[in-house]
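User: I'm putting together notes for a lab meeting next week and I want to include a structural view of one of the chains we've been expressing. I don't have a solved structure, so I'd like a prediction I can at least talk through. The sequence is below, exactly as it appears in our construct file.
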Amino acid sequence: MQVLKVVPRGYCYGVVDALVLAKRIARDPGTPRPIHVLGQIVHNRHAVEELNRHGIVTLDGPDRLALLDTVTEGTVIFTAHGISPRVKERARARGLHVVDATCPDVERTHDLIRSLAAGGARILYIGKRGHPEPEGAMGEAPGRVHLVETRADVDALGPLPGRLAVLTQTTLSQWDTRDLIAYIQERYPEIEVYNEICRATQERQEAAVAAAREVDCVVVVGDTRSNNSNRLVEVVRKVAGRPSYLVDSVAELDPAWFRGLSRVAVTAGSSTPTEVTRAVIERLESL
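Assistant: Thanks for the context. Below is the predicted structure for the 287-residue chain, given as structure tokens.
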């Protein structure tokens, strides 16, 4: 089968920085032990397993503060998704060695929330419930940030007096987000708009959609918990109108998907290791 390798795909700079930082900390004999990560450092099990082999323990769960309460000594690493100030303060108060692997793009959103809140703004934050990035971002201004994911969430807010701003999670579908922002602007015409979807997310989505129009289907290599990987599948289906499948590894490829097809594209989420994507490409080329 002919395989179109989508470019760009795979690791973004924020993921690379986080993984390099964690491995450097693990190799440093002066780093206080044990070393824990609050949540998956990036949403990919292969990347997490690699850190485990370096002696880094991943604590997984939806509540970062609750995870922190299980750490009594050593080093704690905050993930690339960002963390709320309350968790940072608690970690330092407990005397833990703190390492912050927050993606610079996410950190910029945190800075913006602090600035807007200090200026008296009430903030609508477009993001995915249950994802750690909104949890950390909203923690910058408790009580002033409203999480919205759908039009129904916007409708439920009702009138909001005073200065308003809308911000976004960095890994959303740019098309869906654009539509929701337009709806928000209809409800609140004076709202300030800050689209924080990162360049890496936008470029990978645009490349996937363009490639999809030249092939029969698209395979996205990524973890089911990876928001940006799931959004790649979604934009291929909704924007390009092509079948798309998410696989965690070569073992999840189903030959039935490709019967009667001659050309497939492969892309990968920004937290997917290159060697995992390479194995998927090689298997498809052998069909």
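A couple of points you could mention at the meeting. The chain has three domains: 2-10+199-285, 13-103, 105-194. The chain is about 40% helix and 20% strand.

User: Perfect, that's what I needed.
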